[in-house]
Amino acid sequence: MERTPVNTRKNRTTIRTLALLGTALLLSGCSTTGADGVGAGEDTEPGDGSAEATAPGPGQPEDVVTGLEVPWGIGFLPDGSALVAQRDSAAVVRVAPDGTADEAGTVEGVEHGGEGGLLGLAVDPDFPEEPYAYVYFTSDSDNRVSRISYDADANTLGEAEVILDGIPAADNHNGGRIAFGPDGYLYVATGDAQDTGNSQDTDSLGGKILRITTTGEPAPGNPFDNPVHSYGHRNVQGLAWDDEENLYATEFGQDALDEVNLIEPGNNYGWPEAEGPGGGDEYTDPLLTWEPAEASPSGAAIVGDSLYVASLRGARLWEVPLTGDGTVGEPEAHFVDELGRLRTVVPTPDGDALWLSTSNHDSWGSPAEGDDRIVNVPLE
Questions:
Q1: Are 334 and 53 in contact (CB under 8 A)?
Q2: Among 92, 104, 253, 330, which residue has the least CB neighbours within 10 Å?
Q3: Above 70 in pLDDT, residue 12?
Q4: pLDDT > 90: what percent of the chain?
Q5: Rounded CA gap, 265 and 219, in Å?
């Protein structure tokens, strides 16, 4: 079923970059090869905890469920339970608010390797009238998006249909986040798949944010008459909208700067010509940057006037104030080195808490007893 888009707002022009914890950049000549370390992208060892939280923030995390392995996508159902995608096994589990976890099935065609596997998951916003879950996964040839029927009464995944394929894949930089926007269309975050030429090519699906219908067609109004919504990205893994329907995306940098971007249709975010701000008038500067040791940002969520960003290498949850005029305030770091690598953050349906997942069973983590886990973080 396709949905009617809402009117979009004019592009914002007020953008500023916020410097954090000094202005020195990590330009130490680290190799651009390897499994998503500094210079390769997402996943490196946890940070040293130098950026401590300085103000009260979210409440104390409490385990919802333990014993998962690399939980990636989380999609809530109307009853408050959630479907959770596990990257390496391709298994989807349904997790109830009381922590009960039951497997719903395994997604066919998933090939795990490096950072690839079963990644993003989104539940149709019209569920159960539209009884589908959508997943982003790595196959043996590309990254794909599938629509899968889901029987909530039986907790069973049913027939799967690939609705979008041909997204470049590699061991690293696969993107993977998918989310429904307020316009009812499905947004798909992709990586450059270790080929920087993909990002500036608007005919390629790599290094982009895509916008598609629920049947995989380009959404009406897309700027290039194809699925591409924005381009010039390196490796986007977080998508979140505020109450004014502004889209924010988190993006892994290379050696110097990770980014939070305010996304406008058709805009070029600079990679590989620019990492961080200052690439030139043809590129859109980020709202906010971090050194990779402080962040390596993955999932993103907005509750009220705060953007929450789950950080892998940084091993912390960033809280970024949204000022409402296209800029951001001073970020605060929470749970620094307390939970390990953090992959996904989503608001609970009532908006009173966050579910935050760890990613300590991936190749760069150090699992604690019970990892990986999803924790409930009350918002105080």
A1: yes
A2: 330
A3: no
A4: 82
A5: 12
117 conformational bin, left if phi > 0, alpha if psi -120 to 50, beta if neither: left
User: What length is written for the chain?
Assistant: 380
Instruction: Tell me the two tokens of residue 63.
Output: 């385990």
Both tokens of 79, joined, read 């009853």
Residue 308, pLDDT > 70, answer: yes
Structure token pair of residue 364: 């760069």
How far apart are the C-alpha atoms of 68 and 133, rounded to whole Å? 20
**In this model, does residue 259 exceed pLDDT 80?**
yes
Of 279, 211, 209, 206, the C-alpha closest to 248 is: 209
Structure tokens at 130: 């539209």
CA-to-CA distance for 277 and 289, rounded, in angstroms?
9
CB under 8 Å to 129, separation ≥6 — which residues? none
| pLDDT for residue 42 | 54
pTM of the model: 0.88
d(CA 176, CA 99): 25
* Cα 5 to chain centroid, rounded: 23
The average pLDDT across 302-324 equals 96
The answer to whether residue 263 scores a pLDDT higher than 70 is: yes
pLDDT score of 57 more than 80: no
- Reported confidence tier of residue 44, pLDDT bands at 50, 70, 90: very low
Residue 34, pLDDT score: 32
User: pLDDT, tens digit, for every residue of 275-295?
Assistant: 999 889 999 999 999 999 999
Task: For 143-166, give the secondary structure using H, E and C.
Answer: EEEEEEEEECCCCEEEEEEEEEEE
